[in-house]
């Protein structure tokens, strides 16, 4: 059972949300991307489950997917956000008090919409994986070690990749890339070679217009399964790992 909602103002057209303690008080805060305001908003937790008015930080145009991960090894979570119409990702480094430095931007493909931030090359530094919707690629931006990132390496996907996840699906302790392709009614699995590069995609059919993907073991066999939300057919698909 839950109480009635409490609402907090954001920018215009909030698109994506993450919940992470950003100011080291052991209380989770709200980070939201504001699509039409070209900002991310940070709403700090008062400590009793209520939140302060958002503080906003400038992003690129149409910030979409947001992740909050420590990318520069200072034990403070930073903000990573895709910018749909700027064709880049912004990284906003946490200055230690739950406020953030001005964005640093990195080029992506066309119209990045989804981001995952995971160490893919076993150097204990989280890397950026982004779905480039109108390039029909995923881009991998490796972390240099200081919280800055190399130029993306791209891998071909199906049509209109719209959601990306990075999870080890073949039990080699290396995260693989799973992407939902809204335009081709498929998902792709790209296996990690071990050095942060990926093999050519393997394709599996979904229902119509898959727009979101999650990867988790749903049948207790210790193998991650794939769950997809199919916008065009009003269904979810479950692909069990065999």
TrEMBL record:
Keyword presence, Lipid metabolism: no
Name of a matching Pfam family: FG-GAP_3
UniProt keyword terms in alphabetical order: Signal
Superkingdom: Eukaryota
Gene3D superfamilies: 2.30.30.100
PANTHER family: SENSOR KINASE-RELATED (PTHR46580)
Protein known as: VCBS repeat-containing protein
């Amino acid at each position: 059972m839950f109480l009635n909602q409490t609402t907090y103002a954001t920018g215009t057209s909030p698109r994506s949300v993450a919940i992470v303690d950003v100011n080291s008080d052991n209380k989770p805060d709200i980070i939201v991307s504001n699509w039409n305001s070209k900002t991310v908003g940070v709403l700090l937790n008062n400590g009793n489950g209520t939140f302060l008015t958002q503080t906003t930080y400038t992003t690129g145009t149409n910030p979409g997917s947001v992740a909050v991960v420590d990318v520069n090894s200072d034990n403070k979570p930073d903000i990573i956000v895709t910018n749909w119409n700027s064709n880049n990702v912004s990284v906003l480094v946490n200055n230690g008090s739950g406020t953030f430095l001005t964005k640093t931007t990195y080029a992506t493909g066309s119209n990045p919409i989804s981001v995952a931030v995971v160490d893919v090359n076993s150097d204990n530094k989280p890397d950026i994986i982004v779905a480039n919707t109108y390039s029909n690629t995923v881009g991998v931006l490796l972390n240099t070690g200081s919280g800055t990132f190399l130029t993306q390496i791209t891998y071909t996907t199906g049509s209109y990749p719209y959601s990306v996840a990075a999870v080890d699906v073949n039990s080699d302790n290396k995260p693989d890339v799973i992407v939902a392709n809204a335009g081709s009614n498929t998902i792709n699995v790209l296996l990690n070679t071990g050095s942060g590069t990926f093999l050519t995609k393997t394709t599996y059919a979904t229902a119509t217009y898959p727009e979101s993907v999650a990867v988790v073991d749903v049948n207790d066999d210790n193998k991650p399964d794939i769950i997809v939300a199919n916008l065009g057919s009003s269904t979810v698909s479950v692909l069990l790992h065999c």
